[in-house]
Amino acid sequence: MTQPAPRLSVSGWIAFAAAVGLALGALLGWVAFAPRHPGDDSADAGFARDMSEHHAQAVEMSLLVMQRTDDPDVVRLASDIATSQAYQQGQMGTWLVEWGLPQARPGERMAWMAGHDHATMDMPAGVPMPGMATPAEIAKLTSSRGKAAEVLYLQLMTTHHLAGVEMARAGLDLGRDPQVRSLAEKMVRAQSGEVELMTTMLTERGSQPREDVSAIMGPNSPSASTPAEESSSTMGGHSRH
Fold it and tell me: What integer is the mean pLDDT of 157-163?
């Protein structure tokens, strides 16, 4: 004869209900508080990918000029840019790994910047993003020496930084990840300060930027900021002596 299933006592039911409640609470807590990483088509991922590529050329140009001049101010600046931007490249690449995203972008460059004027800027042939030097300009820097290399580098890097600042502003405006927004803000301040420094260095060499820097930077130019402090926060730091 089949034995009837044992019935839970009142205390048993209470324990069972408590266990179920704990399990549901844990599940809901995980859903509510589990880290939400940026998606593949997010502004955060787009910023990390595009800025990494943009930085790569800045590092390349900085290493080139360091081999083509003995001027201590230019070498110091180029070393700082190469060091800080290579470090930032590593940060952004690490984010993509942590987010479980590929390093390659799923669509067009700068698609994440839709709505920002910078995203529609005209670019010369062979240039993947605004501000980047053309292959011919890189070749000219490679063949230059001394003061000619210094002036060309400072002009190319000023153009590069002006576009980089605009991209960083877009990252600050559109990004949602706190790490992205924090780094974008540091980039805006540090690169704006470096633009001011490079403008002065060009004047000292009897030259000037290819753009109207004051018109582009406007009130966003951080005259009161300290580029050395910003650079040191992402490794490296330059100063004028």
Answer: 96
